[in-house]
Amino acid sequence: MGLQRWNLGMRSPSPSQQYKVRSLLDKMRSRFTTQKMRCLRQADAASTLFLLQTAIALRPK
Questions:
Q1: So what's the pLDDT on residue 45?
Q2: pLDDT digits over 11-41, tens only?
Q3: Rounded distance between C-alpha atoms, residue 42 and residue 50, angstroms
C-alpha cells in the first residue's frame, strides 16, 4: 500500500521486489518491538527516573 507511492520516473517494482521490501520492513518492525518490550521489562523505576533526569539535563536551553 505504501509501495504504490514510487517516483514517477521509476518503473513500478515487480511483485518480488515489493515482497522483499515488505518482508524486510516487517522484520525490522518486529525486531524493534521485541527489543523495546525487553527494555521495558528490564527497566525499573530508578533507571527510568535516571533517564528522565538525564534527558532534562541535556535538553537544549
A1: 63
A2: 666 777 778 888 888 887 787 777 776 666 6
A3: 14
**Domain residue spans of the chain:** 15-60
Q: What are the Cα distances from residue 14, in Å, to 4, 20, 37?
A: 11, 10, 35
Q: How far is CA 31 from CA 13, 18, 41, 42, in A?
A: 25, 20, 15, 17
3-class secondary-structure state, position 1: coil
Higher-confidence position of 59 and 40: 59
- Which set of grid coordinates corresponds to residue 14? 515487480
Q: What is the pTM (predicted TM-score) of this model?
A: 0.35
d(CA 19, CA 25): 10
SS3 37: helix
